[in-house]
Write a structure and sequence with these properties.
The protein is mainly alpha-helical and 384 residues long. The chain is elongated. It has twelve helices and no strands. The N and C termini lie far apart (59 Å). It has one domain. It is a multi-pass membrane protein. Keywords: Cell membrane, Membrane, Olfaction, Receptor, Sensory transduction, Transducer, Transmembrane, Transmembrane helix. It comes from Anoplophora chinensis (Citrus longhorn beetle). InterPro entries: 7tm6_olfct_rcpt. It is found in: Cell membrane.
């Protein structure tokens, strides 16, 4: 059963709506063609940022000059990865709406303990995350202005002609190193950064927040099983047990729908984050760069948020079987004991946030990505 309205994640969904990647409240039941066209138009308006970066990278490789090659690769992968996030999310937005509606259903199985307190806490965290991501993009935007003189000195020392004062190295078939074209393009880069990076970071936070709501439901399921086993009357015990089983099956179904929606995003996240971090680490070993630090922290936090949520979801799903084993299960009749064995066996298969062929989003995945980034760092160091 689904709720008529979504009553969870109010702040996150409002921020996503502002970025045109989630429908407004009045359109949530039917996000039509206009909604998708607005999203496509917004993202297409930023494509020149990625185009200029890729052209700079291509020309430097072709000429074998390799100027700022590490930052070019990191920025290109970072922009491409964010587009990948955003378009993968919008492609599954109807499934995502379905998930939020099912998690907003407080009638079928009751209101989980601490639901309102947890929802309020997550809404506050969403505000803090929004402030953080705005600050991170501002840091990325201000960095080239703070490092303007440093860039000019590098041009003289290395006898090159890079355009200073822009977010990353770019090349376009027009003279950008003059007033007002450079200033106009810088403003365009700042606008594009907010559209692209802010949206992708909000998606990562919303996935973590969804995992937290699933954890809340799993805890509710666990207490449902324990309450059934404490019941003395066989008929009432069986009714409560059957209700808990149905609730558990429903949560498993929602978790599978979540993986249908986000596994493609997580696959890209794991695949690209290691490369981005490795390139930035290589740059930071050579020289300080505020913009590079902002990118590094942004991608690492984005990955860590989902992995922490995924680890907690895994642990909570396993805790149901552990709690049943520690209960007075031996006091119930043999028929119910046989059913308990089936429940415990199912609980041995934990619920994860799936990352496709890379496995699952857990603490171990953070270490895997960091190891991958070190491999890229070693590769870049050996070829420089």
């Amino acid at each position: 059963m689904e709720a008529d309205d979504i009553v969870i994640m109010e702040n996150s969904l409002r921020y996503l709506s502002r970025n045109l990647i989630f429908p407004k409240k009045k359109d949530v039941n039917n996000p039509g063609v206009i909604f998708h066209l607005k999203f496509i138009a917004l993202n297409l308006s930023t494509v020149m940022f990625l185009t200029g970066n890729i052209l700079h990278l291509t020309i430097n490789i072709k000429r074998k000059t390799y100027i700022n090659l590490d930052l070019d690769i990191a920025l290109a992968i970072s922009l491409f990865g964010s587009y990948y996030f955003n378009f993968s999310y919008i492609r599954q937005v109807k499934n995502t709406i379905n998930i939020y509606k099912q998690l907003s259903d407080l009638r079928s199985y009751g209101i989980p303990k601490d639901f309102y307190a947890t929802n309020k806490k997550l809404n506050n965290y969403s505000k803090y995350h929004y402030i953080y991501i705005v600050s991170a993009v501002l840091g990325l935007s201000v960095a080239p202005l703070l490092e303007y003189k440093k860039c000019q000195k590098e041009n003289v020392v290395k006898n090159i002609n890079e355009i200073c004062g822009l977010i990353g190295s770019i090349w376009l078939p027009i003279d950008l190193d003059s007033i007002p074209y450079k200033q106009m393009y810088y403003i365009f880069q700042v606008y594009s950064s907010f559209v692209i990076y802010q949206t992708s970071s909000l998606i990562s936070f919303s996935i973590m927040e969804t995992a937290e709501h699933l954890i809340l439901r799993l805890n509710h399921v666990k207490h449902g099983f324990l309450d059934a086993l404490m019941e003395r009357e066989d008929r009432v015990r069986r009714e409560k047990f059957s209700r808990a089983v149905k609730y558990h099956v429903n949560i498993i179904r929602i978790s599978k729908l979540l993986n249908t929606s986000v596994s493609t995003i997580m696959f890209g996240h794991v695949l690209l984050t290691g490369a981005i971090l490795g390139c930035i680490e290589y740059r930071l070993l050579k020289s300080y760069s505020l913009g590079a630090i902002c990118l590094f922290v942004g991608w690492l936090i984005s990955m860590s948020m989902v992995c922490i949520g995924g680890q907690r979801l895994r642990d909570q799903s396993l805790s149901i079987g552990d709690a049943i084993c520690k209960s007075n299960w031996f006091d119930v009749n043999k028929e119910l004991q046989r059913d308990l064995v089936l429940v415990i066996l199912r609980c041995q298969k934990p619920i994860f946030i799936d990352a496709g062929p890379f496995g699952y989003m857990t603490y171990a995945m953070i270490l895997t990505v960091l190891k991958t980034s070190y491999s890229y760092l070693t590769l870049l160091s050996s070829t420089s």
